[in-house]
Write a structure and sequence with these properties.
Largest sheet of chain B: 4 strands, parallel
Strand order of the largest sheet of chain B: 2-1-3-4
Number of helices of chain A: 6
Radius of gyration of chain B: 14 Å
Distance between the termini of chain B: 14 Å
Largest interface: A-B, 29 and 30 residues
Shape of chain A: globular
Distance between the termini of chain A: 15 Å
Oligomer: heterodimer
Shape of chain B: globular
Order of helices and strands of chain A: EHEHHEHEHH
Number of strands of chain A: 4
Strand order of the largest sheet of chain A: 2-1-3-4
Strand content of chain A: 5-15%
Largest sheet of chain A: 4 strands, parallel
Order of helices and strands of chain B: EHEHHEHEHH
Number of helices of chain B: 6
Structural class of chain A: alpha/beta
Radius of gyration of chain A: 15 Å
Helix content of chain B: 40-55%
Structural class of chain B: alpha/beta
Chain lengths: ~140, ~140
């Protein structure tokens, strides 16, 4: 197995009901499409929870990062329940607390400020992806020695 | 339909495909613009996690699901949760009726994807009206 084959699974909550859920989704896609396209894949959460064997097998074998919109943490809890403990979790509402003046309003068309915030969340996810891959590579190196 | 009831529109999360975004966008079009007084949406993940409040909502109110692909996660989850499922939509069916449209993009849909979402939203809004009027679907 080569190091390049390692991927990190990003599991986003569906979050249809609240703007934070849309931020989770957009930030996840930004990581997949722009920030770390070669190192990441996504997993459809309801399919995963409903018993998609492919998804569950992936999450058992590879590190996952869960991205939740709110404190209910469906992605984190679901991943842990059906597969294994995620490598890391990003909760949008926690990141939002650090942006004192920002109020999320849109579930559909993000404002310029909301886009900027989604990019900030995406950067946090990308940082966790790098940490996960670094950890994997260290493990591989120690196994070879 | 009793006055205190509302229709719950539940799209799949569909994060891997344009068709998932179309279902989600159509849901917002119905809930926020076309039928804001009679409809609500909820998180599918909450339902799959067995959240009691969400289970109560889908068991006490009529539900419409919108799925992006034939895996039909939204429909299957509502059925498995004993929700009052009245009507299910599949984005690929709407696409079949609008073969000229070539949707693309997930974060941001292209104009044709938005057009398809609007067409689907109209179909869903029609179903909402029929449920309100007590017609069987």
């Amino acid at each position: 197995m080569t190091l390049a084959k390692w991927k990190v699974g990003i599991v986003s909550c569906s979050g249809e009901e609240i703007p934070e859920g849309t931020i989770s989704r957009v930030a996840t896609r930004l990581v997949l499409e722009k920030l770390r396209p070669d190192e990441t894949v996504t997993i459809c959460l309801p399919l995963f929870l409903a018993g998609g064997e492919g998804e569950r097998t992936f999450a058992k074998l590879f590190p996952t990062i869960t991205v939740d919109g709110c404190e209910k943490r469906c992605a984190e809890i679901g991943t842990e329940k059906y597969s294994g403990k995620p490598f890391a979790t990003v909760v949008v509402s926690d990141v939002l607390k650090k942006c004192h003046n920002l109020v999320l309003k849109s579930r559909d068309k993000l404002s310029a400020e909301e886009w900027k915030f989604a990019e900030k969340v995406a950067a946090e996810i990308a940082k966790k992806v790098d940490e996960a891959l670094s950890r994997q590579n260290e493990q591989l190196r120690s196994e070879k020695q | 339909m009793p006055k205190d009831e509302y229709i719950v529109i539940i799209p799949c999360s569909g994060i891997g495909k344009s068709l998932g975004t179309i279902g989600r966008k159509a849901t917002y079009k119905v809930v926020d613009e076309l039928c804001p007084k009679n409809t609500r949406t909820t998180c599918l993940a909450l339902l799959t996690m067995g959240d009691q409040e969400t289970l109560k909502m889908i068991r006490e109110n009529p539900c419409i699901t919108i799925d992006g692909c034939p895996s039909k996660c939204a429909q299957k989850n509502v059925e498995a949760s004993n929700g009052r499922l009245i009507k299910s939509f599949l984005v690929t069916d709407t696409l079949r009726n609008h073969r000229n449209l070539k949707p693309d993009g997930i974060i941001e849909l292209n104009p044709e994807g938005c057009e398809l979402a609007n067409a689907l939203a109209k179909e869903v809004a029609k179903a909402v009206d029929e449920i309100k009027e007590g017609k069987s679907l």
